[in-house]
Write a structure and sequence with these properties.
Distance between the termini: 38 Å
CATH superfamily of the largest domain: NAD(P)-binding Rossmann-like Domain
Low-confidence stretches: none
CATH topology of the largest domain: Rossmann fold
Mean pLDDT: 97
Order of helices and strands: EHEEHEHHEHHEEHEEEHEEHEHH
Strand order of the largest sheet: 3-2-1-4-5-6-11
Shape: globular
Number of helices: 11
CATH class of the largest domain: Alpha Beta
Radius of gyration: 19 Å
Structural class: alpha/beta
Length: 307
């Protein structure tokens, strides 16, 4: 099957591409390289450096005629979205609409959408959060990602475009940017290996559901095989504190320093973890890589690549 992966040079998208290719699919990658990197690209994928907002995207559809889209491209920084809400709407909502319109016109069968379970629900009313939990995002990033889920449903009702929306938790692993503003595992790992001082925002008792990137990529494979539409949480259903992440990474990297705390960040949920029973029941998905194993693989990757 021919699959177009947006954001396929990015952290998560490049792993998704690798898994599709491993399964024997033909893969086309669209990425503007804003945060994606050429070195992440699988050499067996055809690459187009195009922004999802661009009219040039139609040329890719006309030439490649993909059967399925895996839509991973997005701006994903919660804190940046508080400062640039219009940019996040433009890229994440209008960019996705451009993609959906082209999917409709070029008769794409299905779209797999990377949504966010970490940001769409807001501060949880109960834990772990299931797909029936009220949607109350605290930031423009979460709002923009959820808005697209409504459009996915509209395009299914009106044009028969099937969709699977995967609500990701806090994804970590190899290829995540250690110099970015998002992704505490990559940032702390990079800082510890460089001998710099990581700063824990707030008390460090805030909790996230940390999921290894290959478990996310595998969910995209299973979503491709699923008939019909649906929205699915991915996650372990349990939270890990930032303080615990610091402790584990300190141990794995041999970092000698102590924990330092800074002010908390605006717009961030305090505690969240996602119940993924529906994904297990309907997609046959469950997480396979335990936290310590995933952190060890991540540290080893950065050890090799930061040298």
């Amino acid at each position: 099957m021919k699959v177009l992966v947006t954001g396929g040079a990015g952290f998560i998208g490049s792993h998704v591409v690798d898994f599709f290719i491993r399964e024997g699919h033909e893969v086309v990658v669209v990425d503007n390289l804003h945060t994606g990197k050429v070195e992440n690209l699988n050499p067996r994928a055809r690459f187009y450096q195009v922004d999802i907002r661009s009219p040039e995207l139609e040329e890719v559809f006309a030439k490649e005629r993909p059967e399925v889209i895996s839509h991973q491209a997005a701006l994903v920084n919660v804190r940046e979205s508080m400062l640039k809400p219009m940019l996040y709407a433009e890229v994440n909502i209008l960019g996705s609409l451009n993609l959906l319109e082209l999917a409709r016109r070029y008769e794409v069968k299905k779209i797999i959408y990377a949504s966010t379970g970490g940001a769409v629900y807001g501060e949880p009313e109960y834990l772990p959060v299931d797909e029936e939990h009220p949607i109350n995002p605290l930031d423009p990033y979460g709002a923009s990602k959820h808005a697209v889920e409504h459009y996915l449903h509209l395009y299914y009702l009106n044009y028969g475009l099937e969709y699977i929306s995967l609500r990701y938790p806090n994804v970590y692993g190899p290829r995540q940017d250690p110099f970015g503003e998002a992704g505490v595992v990559a940032i702390f790992t990079g800082q510890m290996l460089r001998g710099e001082q990581p700063v824990i925002n707030g008390s460090g008792e805030q909790e996230r559901d940390f999921l290894y990137v290959e478990d996310v990529a595998r969910a995209n494979i299973l979503a491709l095989e699923k008939e019909g539409c649906g929205i699915y949480n991915l996650g372990w259903g349990k939270g890990t504190s930032v303080n615990e992440i610091f402790r584990l990474l300190k141990e794995l990297t041999g970092y000698p320093g102590k924990a330092v705390h800074g002010p908390p960040k605006q717009g961030e949920v305090f505690k969240i973890c996602l119940k993924a029973d529906k994904a297990k029941r309907e997609l046959g998905w469950e997480p396979l890589v335990p936290l310590e194993e995933g952190l060890r693989a991540t540290v080893e990757y950065f050890r090799r690549n930061l040298a």
